[in-house]
């Protein structure tokens, strides 16, 4: 009976995409499926590790025509380690026929859309945690860690757990003063960082259908901050025409079936939305602009994969024309792609920016990735169009997130505002042996790995511990796992000395959405370097869960009642059985059930990792 129902199942967008890229006749949320990937990307900070994983494991590239490097996190190569990684990748690309979107092109995910690397209904992976921006064109994008990308480059496929789909209906008219950034900040205010954790979200509405490509990119770009796997839009005629104009490729149609099955459906009145800002520290800690109006700023930033589009540049230019950035305030503007930079130049927008006193940089990720302009210093207050304002993410100061219009108006005023204020506030090449050649002896001797561990408990009962708290982005250029352990949790308040105090076999127990945020593999590997035997959490960030499983780092989930059932206290010695799904407190011999390993997780763990 269930099989017949499954065959007749009306599918959501994500289910259709996964089915079309797998050998499955039916797709059910929760099942694990091998999915063919249309475009496979490594960026500059993760690319070197991807290459090392391939070489060290004797792997070759399944299809170079679908394989790409994008250098966008440090397009200036201004850091020696970034510059070394970029050139290492260039040399590898030359010898293996891989196309490089180099430092003069801009953000990789945007290049993928504009160049037609991925089409509606397609699949895309990158070492960029915002690869799910592809939801803007009705495609499936996913951020991955270095091992995952290396495996996809070698196999052409990746395993995925089919996400449940959620439908959001934005009813009513969008107020004239509400930008796409305001829409996603209002949604973050409603859903927070984990209410839609691991879900594929589809957004509908009469005014939603009118959203431009640039606006859809802004909203989809922040799915990661909402904890969602992806935010998907159904492309309309205008979107298809624009995509064909950009890439010269006619896109296939993609849409959810009528009466598709959704886990949940939400009706939200968009007419009640107000201009919003995210307060420093968390993208989901949102309030109205009115609530923080006149908060003094030191700097302003316009750009990132969320708001560096041409429409954003035009909005900012309209505000800045004939105006000056407030004295003492620094305004930094970074278009997302070189094409947008050039068009901004042709339209005279760059001149307007410069006349207003702004610093304009070449296209790229800018301050969001710590490799370009846009960072701030200690105690510096910044208002930014970026997608993240985790502590330390865009610098050591405080970062508010807002729409391009709000940021531009605030830069002129010298303080946060959504109104125009006239103010002046003293505010050819030699080969390097990188050609991939499979190893002659592929038999690896792998030591036996324990399926039951015992160690001291670290109880860290805090939701939404993000990857910047676990392993800060200032250490991203580190590729030696032996160097990573010392930085574990050094950006998590109260646990700055964790790496010094942790002992081998210790066990971390935390709560919801552990590992939210970035796709950085180091946030897993730092615990492996310290000898942490396993991590238990109520839930994990989607990319973090993949990275941990693929790195053979034991992670498991539990229900909240487990804590009281075994009377768990910090420092208790506990035993964890990965296969039985059982935890025992040695202090009192009380036991409780937890969720055991998935079959694929056990297989990867016993193989000592995905590769």
Question: At CATH's second level, what is the architecture of the largest domain?
Answer: 2-Layer Sandwich
Q: What is the total tally of β strands?
A: 25
Mean pLDDT: 92
Ranges where pLDDT stays below 50 over 5 or more residues in a row are 1-6
Q: Look at the helices and sheets and give the structural class.
A: alpha/beta
What coarse outline follows from CA principal-axis ratios?
globular
- Count of separate structural domains: 3
Which sequence of strands runs across the widest sheet?
22-21-20-19-23-24-25
Distance between the termini: 39 Å
Strand content: 15-25%
Q: How would you sum up the major sheet?
A: 7 strands, mixed
Quickly count the helices.
20
Q: Helical residue percent? A: 25-40%
Instruction: Provide the CATH topology of the largest domain.
Output: Aconitase, domain 3
CATH class of the largest domain: Alpha Beta
Radius of gyration using CA atoms only: 24 Å
The CATH H-level superfamily of the largest domain is Aconitase, domain 3
């Amino acid at each position: 009976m269930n099989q017949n129902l499954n065959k007749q199942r009306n599918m959501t967008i994500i289910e259709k995409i996964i089915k079309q890229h797998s050998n499955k006749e039916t797709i059910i949320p929760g099942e694990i499926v091998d999915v063919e990937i249309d475009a496979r990307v490594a960026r500059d900070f993760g690319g070197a590790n991807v290459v090392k994983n391939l070489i060290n494991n004797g792997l070759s590239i399944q299809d170079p025509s679908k394989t790409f490097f994008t250098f966008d996190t440090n397009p200036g190569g201004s850091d020696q380690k970034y510059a070394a990684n970029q050139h290492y990748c260039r040399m590898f690309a030359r010898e293996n026929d891989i196309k490089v979107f180099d430092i003069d092109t801009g953000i990789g995910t945007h290049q993928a859309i504009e160049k037609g690397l991925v089409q509606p209904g397609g699949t895309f992976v990158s070492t960029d945690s915002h690869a799910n921006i592809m939801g803007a064109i009705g495609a499936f994008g996913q951020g991955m860690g270095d091992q995952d990308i290396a495996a996809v480059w070698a196999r052409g496929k990746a395993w995925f757990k089919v996400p449940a789909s959620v439908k959001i209906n934005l009813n009513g008219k969008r107020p004239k003063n509400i930008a796409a950034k305001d829409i996603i900040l209002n949604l973050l205010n409603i859903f927070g960082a984990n209410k839609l954790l691991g879900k594929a979200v589809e957004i509908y509405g009469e005014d939603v259908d009118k959203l431009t490509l640039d606006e859809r990119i802004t909203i989809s770009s922040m799915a990661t901050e909402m904890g969602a796997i992806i935010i998907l839009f159904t492309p309309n005629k205008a979107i298809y025409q624009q995509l064909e104009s950009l890439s010269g490729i006619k896109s296939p149609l993609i849409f959810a079936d009528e009466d598709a099955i959704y886990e949940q459906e939400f009706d939200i009145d968009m007419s009640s939305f107000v201009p919003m800002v995210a307060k420093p520290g968390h993208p989901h800690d949102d309030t109205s602009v009115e609530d923080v109006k006149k908060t003094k700023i030191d700097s302003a930033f316009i750009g990132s994969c969320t708001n560096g589009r041409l429409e954003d540049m035009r909005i900012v230019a309209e505000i800045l024309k004939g105006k000056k950035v407030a004295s003492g305030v620094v305004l930094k503007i970074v278009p997302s792609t070189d094409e947008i930079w050039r068009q901004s130049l042709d339209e005279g927008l760059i001149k307007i920016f410069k006349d207003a006193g702004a610093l304009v940089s070449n296209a790229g990720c800018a301050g969001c990735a710590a490799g370009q302009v846009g960072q701030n210093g200690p105690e510096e207050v910044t208002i930014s169009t970026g997608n993240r304002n985790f502590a330390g993410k865009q610098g050591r100061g405080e970062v508010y997130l807002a729409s391009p219009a709000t940021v531009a108006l605030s830069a002129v005023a010298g303080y946060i505002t959504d109104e125009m204020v006239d103010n002046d506030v003293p505010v050819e090449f030699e080969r390097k042996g990188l050609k991939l050649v499979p190893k002659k002896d592929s038999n690896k001797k792998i030591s036996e790995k324990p399926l039951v561990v015992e160690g001291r408990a670290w109880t860290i009962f805090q939701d939404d511990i993000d990857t910047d708290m676990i392993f800060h982005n200032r250490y991203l250029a580190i590729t030696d796992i032996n160097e990573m352990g010392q930085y574990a949790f050094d950006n998590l308040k109260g646990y700055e000395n964790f790496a010094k105090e942790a002992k081998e076999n210790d066990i971390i127990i935390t709560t919801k959405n552990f590992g939210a945020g970035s796709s950085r593999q180091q946030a897993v590997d730092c615990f492996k370097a310290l000898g942490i035997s396993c991590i238990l959490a109520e839930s994990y960030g989607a990319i973090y869960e993949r990275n941990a499983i693929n790195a053979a780092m034991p992670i498991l989930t539990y229900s909240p009642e487990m804590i009281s059932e075994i009377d768990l206290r910090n420092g208790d010695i506990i035993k964890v059985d990965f296969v039985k799904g059982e935890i025992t407190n040695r202090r009192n011999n009380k036991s409780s059930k937890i969720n055991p390993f998935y079959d694929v997780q056990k297989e990867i763990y016993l193989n000592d990792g995905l590769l």
